[in-house]
Amino acid sequence: MRRYIAQHDEWLTRQTGPEAERPAGASAQLPGPEALAIHLHRLQHLQHERLAHLLVLLGFAVMCLIALGLWLAFSGWALFALFALFLVMLPPYVQHYWLLENSVQRWIRACPDLEKRR
């Protein structure tokens, strides 16, 4: 997913930046409506991905809290291990969701630049 986001960010830079800022050998800019359509399709895909990861993140957070409550109520080592497992798995999900959220916001801010080229 990181590579997909980075590739699209580079593509956006080529599409929205002036001719002089594009690296040598970079592909030419697409016509405005075509570039906007491609961008909106990719944005829609990333928004769907973000929603799916938000639901997974919330599920893991709820399971972590349930495991904590069970461990505090019954204080067994197995419940502690379950809570620790969820607690260890939660930060990577938060980090990935953070990447998706920030990328979606950045891509939304790029829409007016593509719309100006219509």
Q: How does this structure look, described?
A:
This protein has 118 residues and is mainly alpha-helical. The protein has one domain. Helix content is 83%, strand content 0%. It is built from three helices and no strands. The chain has helices at residues 2-16, 32-74, 77-116. The radius of gyration is 21 Å and the shape is rod-shaped. The two termini are 29 Å apart.
How would you characterize the largest beta sheet? none
Strand portion: under 5%
Number of strands: 0
Instruction: Note poorly predicted spans.
Output: none
Instruction: Name the structural class.
Output: mainly alpha
The percent of residues in helical segments reads over 70%
Radius of gyration: 21 Å
Distance linking N and C termini: 29 Å
From the spread of the alpha carbons, the general shape counts as: rod-shaped
Give the number of domains: 1
Work out the helix count. 3
Round the mean pLDDT to the nearest integer and report it: 89
Compile the SSE list and pairings.
Layout: H1 2-16, H2 32-74, H3 77-116
Helix pairs in contact: 1-3, 2-3
